[in-house]
Amino acid sequence: MRVVLAEDGVLLREGLAGLLERFGFTVVASVSDATELLRAAAEHSPDLVVTDIRMPPTFTDDGLRAAVQLRRDNPGLAVVALSQYVQHGYAAELLDSGGGLGVGYLLKDRVVDVEDFISALRRVVAGGTVIDPQVVRRLLNRQNNPITRLSQREREVLALVAEGHSNAAIAKVLVLSEASINKHIGNILAKLDLSPTDDSNRRVLAVLTYLRERFPELP
User: Fold this and answer.
1) Which of 22, 111, 172, 191 has its CA 20 to 30 A from that of 201?
2) pTM reported for the whole predicted model
3) Of all residues in the chain, what percent are helix, strand and coil, respectively (each to 5)?
4) What pLDDT sits at residue 182?
5) Would you call 214 exposed, middle or buried from its count of C-beta atoms within 10 A (0-12, 13-18, 19+)?
6) Average pLDDT of the chain to the nearest whole number
């Protein structure tokens, strides 16, 4: 099985390459950023891509976005995302791609058995789906989070509210009228199911909802 491996950490990349070779995989390319990953996949037509998520050029979700693009261009390409965390934005799109077949999402710190890991890769290449249960739980929690109902602009407004800005200050930051900000905040409160008859401070409750989504360890 021909593999393209993408990992920006040189020691981990070399270690994974050696491990894969030891178990009969052929690593046809070993790259360190998302741009090289797309180029290597186009050049080598691998059976499997194993990629980290956070890598250059932006060190955010470049690897995951590249994986989504590869699956979009070639739904039959087996792809395994191997990461330290769950990136919500594109994780669901990756797992939905290609009918959910031949795809995996594993968390690095939960891989405790080498042979199980290799078995998971082979299942993905054979058309199976391998997803860490913790990834599933986090994605389900995300889907149930009312913050996901907000538009991008509404999330920007709520983020500035959370920073303590007044409506007038938010209007200046976003170069919008104060009336527009008032409308956005009204929409936010409605989408978060914060009833206008609630005696509590709805603005504070909206901020708490936002912070819990950003920092899930909060109570």
Assistant:
1) 172
2) 0.67
3) 55, 15, 30
4) 93
5) exposed
6) 87
- The tokens describing 133, both together, are 């249960």
Secondary-structure class of domain 2-143 per CATH: alpha beta
Q: Which helix (H) or strand (E) holds 104?
A: strand 103-107
The structure tokens listed for 147 are: 């913050």
Using the structure block, give the residue that is written with the tokens 């939905």: 96
pLDDT of amino acid 209 = 75
Question: Beta strands 129-131 and 26-31: pairing type?
Answer: unpaired
CATH 1.10.10.10 matches 146-214: yes
Burial of 150 (0-12, 13-18, 19+ CB in 10 A): buried
Q: Where in the chain is the domain with CATH 1.10.10.10?
A: 146-214
What pLDDT is recorded for position 25? 98
- Listed in order, the ranges of the chain carrying CATH 3.40.50.2300 are 2-143
- Give the residue ranges of the chain where pLDDT is below 70: 88-89, 136-145, 195-201, 212-219
Comparing CA positions, the residue from 43, 34, 35, 41 lying closest to residue 64 is 34
